[in-house]
Amino acid sequence: MEKRYSQMSEKELRNEITELNEKAKKAEQMGMVSEFAVLERKRVMAEAYLIDPDDFMTGQRYSIKQDGGTFFIKYFNGVFAWGFRDHSEELEALPISLLEE
Fold first, then answer.
1. Nearest alpha-carbon partner for 21 in 40, 5, 47
2. For the whole prediction, is pTM greater than 0.85?
3. Fewest CB atoms less than 10 Å from the CB: which of 11, 39, 51, 88?
4. Residues 10-69 pLDDT 10s
């Protein structure tokens, strides 16, 4: 049985990210768009566990990597920041690895 990201050491997480990057490149080269998207989401989640949520503050707005938008943090739940994208009124969660400090 595989370990959860929350149970992995930093070294295990980094190895997992490297492996996911390699698999994602292969999937992209083979034109497997869905597989590529799944692997990218897994990578983002693994990266989130390498970041300290205390590096971010509630009540602050941060840029979203690769999106160009911004995200206002209302609160945290684990490695997820809950808040509002740009000027939306819909509460949503983003892994903290998608936010730029």
1. 40
2. yes
3. 11
4. 999 999 999 999 999 999 999 999 999 999 999 999 999 999 999 999 999 999 998 889
Both tokens assigned to 89: 């009124």
Determine the average pLDDT of the residues in 5-13: 96
- Residue 101's alpha-carbon distances to 2, 13, 28, 60, in angstroms, are 31, 21, 29, 10
Residues with Cβ < 8 Å from 92, sequence gap 6 or more?
A: 82, 83, 84, 85
Structure tokens at 57: 């503050």
What region does 26 belong to: left with phi over 0, alpha with psi -120 to 50, or beta?
alpha
